[in-house]
Specification:
The radius of gyration is 30 Å and the shape is rod-shaped. It is mostly helical. The protein has helices spanning 2-46, 64-69.
């Protein structure tokens, strides 16, 4: 009985290790494919719309139109 139990535990251990290695390889393959597709689209993602340039102080200035629409409480 002990021999059968030992063989069963050894089989589960080897099967578990095989399952973990297969899962790790699948993860690495999927991750590599995603990285490759992101890098292939990277030049398209860097293009952006250019708006009218504002002086640096105006970027953080309060919007007067919003002040009239939403008065302070």
């Amino acid at each position: 009985m002990a021999t059968r139990l030992g063989i069963a535990l050894l089989g589960m251990t080897c099967g578990g290790v095989t399952f973990l290695i297969t899962g790790l390889l699948a993860f690495l393959v999927i991750n590599g494919m995603q990285e490759h597709s992101i890098q292939a689209r990277a030049p398209l993602a860097e293009t952006s719309v250019r708006y009218a340039a504002l002086p640096p102080a105006a970027q953080w200035a309060p919007d007067e139109a919003l002040g009239r629409t939403y008065p302070a409480r």
